[in-house]
Write a structure and sequence with these properties.
Blueprint: E1 19-20, E2 26-31, E3 34-39, E4 48-56, H1 59-67, E5 79-89, E6 92-99, E7 108-119, E8 124-131, E9 143-144, E10 147-158, E11 161-171, H2 178-183, H3 187-203
Parallel strand pairs: 7-9
Antiparallel strand pairs: 1-2, 2-3, 3-4, 4-11, 5-6, 6-7, 7-8, 8-10, 10-11
Length: 205
Amino acid sequence: MYKYFLFFLPSVLLPFCMAVAQNGWELKKDKDSIRVFTRTSETSKFNELKVEFSLRGSYGQLRAILEDVENYKSWVYATKTSNLVEKKGTGDLIYYSEIAAPWPISNRDFYSNTRIWIDSSQGALHITSRNVSDSYPHIGHIVRIPYLKADWSVSVLSPGWLRIEYTLGWNPGGSIPAWVANMFSTNGPFQSFSQLKKKMAELNP
């Protein structure tokens, strides 16, 4: 009953660790050129996540997909609804998202302040998402995700190709045991980024 749970939600448990990376990152999934790592968090009982992959396209194309909040449900795994709440400026927005979970687990939701910008000194594209849910009213039957911190670092790998490193710190809230969430914490991001790669490939046939 847990197999669809969490933001960029997971569904497959790997029975053992495949490899150990630097800085405590442990490789959990390596498929279709998408590498998913986890490591123990120093500040939370829920593991941190890192994903590395490359995809076709340009900064502008990726940025357009990320700013198209209403269509997150077409590629962000288990997203039931996603709505733009406020556009604060260029590349600076707040959105709401509800994440579907199978019965008897309650759906989760959150509000995120997402910023997108290019570091002119390095030529890299950066995206940060921070939970701002405390500023918005709570919907009683949905469990609010209390902590969410996501960072993207995007660089040009070669002409027409981008390299992405994504990291996530999170707490799903509610009564889901940390050991259960941690066991099932790889496939959701893998599925999401697989769909993102397909969307970008369609733009660059």
